Amino acid sequence: MAYWGVDSCSPITSSYLADVKTWGGTTPTFWGRYLTNNNVCPNGWLSGSEITLCKDNNIGIIRQQLESI
Predict the structure, then answer these.
(1) Which of 58, 39, 46 is nearest to 13 (CA)?
(2) Cα-based distances in Å from 36 to 26, 33, 55, 64, 67
(3) pTM for this entry
């Protein structure tokens, strides 16, 4: 079984997930998202609807965090 995932700043929606499934050929195993707003991803807030969509599609969520340099 191959595992693959997505890393995005954009909110996870049903239509975005459908596009990703078409591109990848299957549902991603995980999705990387920032959990709070930041200068890199201004749409960083992970919403409850995104969490539900991932749960309903058995997609794990990987939390991303910016490190100070």
Answers:
(1) 46
(2) 28, 9, 19, 9, 13
(3) 0.81
Residues of the chain with pLDDT under 70: 36-38, 43-44, 64-69
Would you say 14 and 21 are in contact if contact means Cβ atoms under 8 Å apart? no
Task: Give CA–CA dist 45/34, Å, rounded.
Answer: 7
Nearest to 41 by CA among 69, 62, 67, 10: 10
| Residues paired with 63 in a beta bridge | 33
Percent share of the chain, pLDDT over 70 = 83
The structure tokens listed for 48 are 């409850």
